[in-house]
Structures are given as structure tokens and as C-alpha cells.
Amino acid sequence: MLIGIVGKPSCGKSTFLNALTMVNAKVGDYPFTTVEPNRGTAYVRSSCVCKELGVTDNPKNSLCEDGIRFLPIQILDVAGLVPGASEGRGLGNKFLDDLRQADVLIHVVDASGSLDAEGNIVDKGSWNPLDDVKFLEEEIDAWILAIIKRDYETMKKKASAEKLRFSNLLHEKLTGLAIKKYHIEESIREVGMMDDDASTWDEKLPELVTSIRKKSKPIIIVANKIDQPDSHKNYLNMKEKISSEVFPISALAEVFLRNEQENKTISYSSGDSDFEILNKEKLGDKKESLIQKIKTDLLLKYGSTGVQEVLTHVVFHLLDMIVVYPVEDITKFTDKSENVLPDAFLVPKGTTAIGLAAKIHTDFAKNFIHGQLAPSGRRIGADYEVQNNDVIRIVAAVK
Ligand SMILES: Nc1nc2c(ncn2[C@@H]2O[C@H](COP(=O)(O)OP(=O)(O)OP(=O)(O)O)[C@@H](O)[C@H]2O)c(=O)[nH]1
Ligand SMILES: [Mg+2]
Questions:
Q1: Which of 5, 94, 242, 325 could make a disulfide contact with 391, Cβ separation 3.0–4.6 Å?
Q2: Neighbours of 285 (CB within 10 A)
Q3: Cβ atoms of 299 and 290 closer than 8 Å
Q4: Superfamily the domain 323-396 falls into
């Protein structure tokens, strides 16, 4: 799974990546600070089954602290996007090409309204962040449409002559963009095209692209820089006018709190609504007054900096993932090397036992015999839909 961070220059994408991952991507108050994409690993949290089962675990592919599993998620921060990017403005299509493999996009919006469409500083509050939301969707649609249009006419002729389906041709055309066949098929039905009749395609093509984009690269909007004077007003306005949820966040405050937590001056964990000062002297007066301001203006007002919530929302609500624990031994919950609950996998809700087997190893799915749930020992078939926090043994024939 890959999450892409998008938005206009200087909206705070790299700061947001740093807040989620602490990778230290370069941040600057001038447009196009980022040219080459920055990658990092963030951790989404889920209550671990170790507590329920009363065992101490040895996680391998994830971490566990006090009964909370931390599952790694790849995050990509790309160059800023300006209007007309799909036609080559700014850094042009580069950032879009970097986003090909993303399964979901987080749109970072400068809620303070102090940057124009190109990320240049303007008077505070003079820009309406709602305008950013619309243009970003349009740019992504224009990018996908341009890819389809490259040899659309040839595609149509071939389809008519050879009686081919649009969904098959489009799927081929859009491989590499992490767009699934069923996204295309559903969209074709939704917009009212006939998959096997090329004469119905032209008119609805832009509508089709929007529908495919919504399914294959859903966008979640975050109102960043919520610590700034005009942000709250703009956030409320966005919340009212945008049909999807909007998350108020301060990426900068989160970076600050996490840095201080690493310096051991405060005790803080991402998502917390408060912190405890551990070393007042090391923190110093200046930072202490700043941190108190973060507490009153942000944590008490919004409940947290918002950064961790966004990740939780993306993974567990927008992408509808669940966590399962594959094991070899259902009495000890171990793998071959006696590691207790070694792996935690994020899989989409609706994944079957055989689907899970395929994720572990392709041979596992090919030679699948049955599954077994721990600790009950209950046998499950290939079609069993795995449930959140299932501990599962997959039994496969040895070839
Ligand atoms: N007040 C405030 N400033 C922020 C916040 N997040 C980022 N900034 C500031 O916004 C400026 C731009 O931040 P970046 O993270 O470099 O923005 P970007 O979107 O990666 O910019 P490009 O790489 O140029 O596209 C920097 O001066 C940051 O310190 C925030 O939550 N609050
Ligand atoms: Mg950047």
C-alpha cells in the first residue's frame, strides 16, 4: 500500500511527511522545495491480539508497544502541483508520474489562505483554500485523460474491428497507475457507456475518468496550518462546502512535539491530546511558551495535532483495511522459529482465506488445503472472509 501526499507548493507536504515518519525531508517557505520525491515509513496503530491471548509477542514485520501494534505504511511526498501541471506548467507531469503507484492521496491544503495557486506568499487570509481542492482534482483527471487520449482513436478503431471491450483496453492502457479492472468496469456501468460499443465512449469519457479516479485514487483533504489565525474560519467553510470529511491538522506542531519527545524533554505520543513536561530546564523558556501555546490553541481545541488521525482514517475507513495475524502453530501463535505473533498484515475487508494465503506466498494459495483459526482450532475453507484480529494458520500441500 502506498499513500501519496499532494498539494500546491509550500502547503506543507514535506512537513506532513516528516510529521508522520520523522524522515527529515527538506522543508522551505519557497515553492518547489521538493523536486525529487521523498519516501518514508509511517506507522498505523491497531489494538494487538497479544493482550486478548495473554502472550508476549516478538513482532517481525511490525512493532508492538503496550498492546498496540504499529504497522508500517509507505508514504510518498512529491513536488508541488500548480494549475496547468498536466499540460507541463511548474514541474509539469513529473509529480503525477511519481504518483502512479499510489493507492490513495492525501491532499494537504494550506488552510491559512496565505499562498496563491502557485504557492507564492500573499496576504494572510486573502486566498480561498476551497479553490485548491477543485483544481487538484481537475489536474489529476486531466493527467489520466491525457494518457488515454494518446492513442484513443487507434484504440477505438481496433475495438470496433476486433469487437474488443473498452474495459480491457483501458486496463491495459492504465496498467502502472495502480488502477484495477473492476474500478474501470464499475465506472463504465456508472456513467452509462456500453463496454462493447465504441460509439458510446466519446461523450462520457471525461465523466468516466473522474469516476475511475475517485475509485482508484480516492483523495482525503487535510486543512493544514490550522495553528494560523485565519485557518479555523477557512476550515469550517471547507467542512461545509466539501462533501467528504476534512481533517484539521498542524504538521508543524506535530514535528515540534515529536522532536521534543525524542529529546526527552516531554512525554508525548502521536495522537495524544496532551503531553507531560519531563525536563523543563533542557526545554528552555522559549520552547516552553511555544509548547504551552500548542496545548491551548491546538490540542485542547482540536483534541490532537490531527496527523495520526488522518493516517488511521485513510487506512481503516477510506481503504477499509483490517489486521490479521498469520501463524504456523495455533496453540502457541508462533511461526517456524517460535516467534509469537510475528506478522500482522493489513488486508482489505472482504479478503478470503485463500486471498490471504496468496499475500503470504503465491505457492500457498496454489496448494491451499484449508485454514485454521487460533485459539479455537476451527477449520475454515478457501472462501472464509477473514475478520479483524483473526489469528490464522494456512495449511497448504507441500510440493
Ligand atoms: N504554521 C505552520 N506552518 C507550516 C505547517 N506545515 C508546514 N508549514 C510551513 O510551510 C512552509 C512550506 O512547507 P513544506 O513542507 O516545505 O511545503 P511543501 O508542500 O513540501 O512545499 P514544496 O516542496 O515546495 O511543494 C515551511 O515554511 C513550513 O515550515 C503548519 O502546520 N503550520
Ligand atoms: Mg516539499
A1: 325
A2: 9
A3: no
A4: Beta-grasp domain (3.10.20.30)
Which residues 6+ apart lie within 8 Å of 183 measured at CB?
212, 215, 216
- Cβ neighbours for 296, distance < 8 A, ≥ 6 positions apart: none
In ligand 1, the atom with minimum distance to the C-alpha of 9 is 25
pLDDT per residue as tens digits for the range 23-48: 888 999 999 899 899 999 999 999 99
From the CA of 26, how far away is ligand 2's center (Å)? 7
Q: Residue 76 — φ and ψ, nearest 5°?
A: -125, 125
CB atoms near residue 6 (< 10 Å): 26
Domain boundaries, the chain: 1-37+78-249, 251-303, 323-396
Residue 91 has pLDDT above 80, yes or no: no
Q: Which residue has the cell 498492546?
A: 67
* Most ligand 1 atoms within 8 A of CB, residue of 8, 23, 27, 81 to mutate: 27
Q: What CATH number is given for 1-37+78-249 in this structure? A: 1.10.8.470
Centre of ligand 1 to C-alpha 362, Å, is 42
Each residue of 209-243: pLDDT tens digit?
A: 999 999 999 999 999 999 999 999 999 999 999 98
In this structure, are residues 348 and 355 in contact, taking their beta carbons and an 8 Å threshold? no
Segment 6-10 mean pLDDT: 96
- Which helix (H) or strand (E) segment holds residue 251: the answer is helix 251-262
Q: Which residue has the cell 480516492?
A: 218
What 144-153 contacts at long range (C-beta under 8 Å, 24+ apart), as own/partner pairs, is 144/174, 144/177, 144/209, 144/212, 144/213, 145/205, 145/206, 145/209, 146/86, 147/173, 147/174, 147/177, 148/173, 148/174, 148/205, 148/209, 152/205
Confidence at 309, pLDDT banded by 50, 70, 90: very high
Q: DSSP state, 372?
A: E
Digit-coded pLDDT (tens) for 115-145? 999 999 999 989 999 999 989 999 999 999 9
Edge-to-edge strands, sheet with 368-374:
345-348, 321-327, 390-396, 368-374, 379-380
Same fold across 1-37+78-249 and 323-396 = no
